[in-house]
Amino acid sequence: MNSRQERFGNMTRVYYKEAVGAFIVFDISRGSTFEAVLKWKSDLDSKVHLPNGSPIPAVLLANKCDQKNDDHNPSQIDQFCKQHGFSGWFETSAKDNINIEEAARFLVENILANHQSFPNEEIDLGTVKLDQDTLRAESKSQCC
């Protein structure tokens, strides 16, 4: 880890403050980025929790599926997510808008499921309005 990464790593508590859900992203076309996933998940879990002490929902995003090679095995990623406490995972492409809406909806559903089990004053999610027509118009395609 270089000094820039160390400085950022020390600041993560500020970025995580009051988070109720998270995406952890790796580049599916560069296997080396997957190696950092556990570091980020461990850091997240050590610094932010739900009011009952459990980890916040985290969704793993295998980004750049538009450039993917076939070096990954979906069943291995499923098992990895179960072992390490991820709520789920999606192959995504930010460039081509693949599975972005689906991943966001999945994370929000997990956040809301947790929110419903706590008193309203404990978590302030603010207001999120999803306009179905806009979402459908922006969605281009399903993932690989």
Helices and strands in order:
Elements: H1 3-16, E1 22-27, H2 37-47, E2 58-63, H3 74-84, E3 88-91, H4 100-115, H5 132-138
Parallel strand pairs: 1-2, 2-3
Organism: Echinops telfairi (Lesser hedgehog tenrec)
Protein name: Ras-related protein Rab-32
Rg is 16 Å
Strand order of the largest sheet: 1-2-3
Question: Approximately what portion of the residues adopt beta-strand conformation?
Answer: 5-15%
Main β sheet profile: 3 strands, parallel
Describe this structure in words.
This protein is an alpha/beta fold and 144 residues long. Helix content is 41%, strand content 11%. It contains 5 helices and 3 strands. The chain has helices spanning 3-16, 37-47, 74-84, 100-115, 132-138; strands at 22-27, 58-63, 88-91. A 3-stranded parallel beta sheet has the order 1-2-3, sandwiched between helices. It is globular. Mean pLDDT is 80; it is low at 132-144. This is Ras-related protein Rab-32.
Quick take:
This is Ras-related protein Rab-32. The chain is of the alpha/beta class and about 140 residues long.
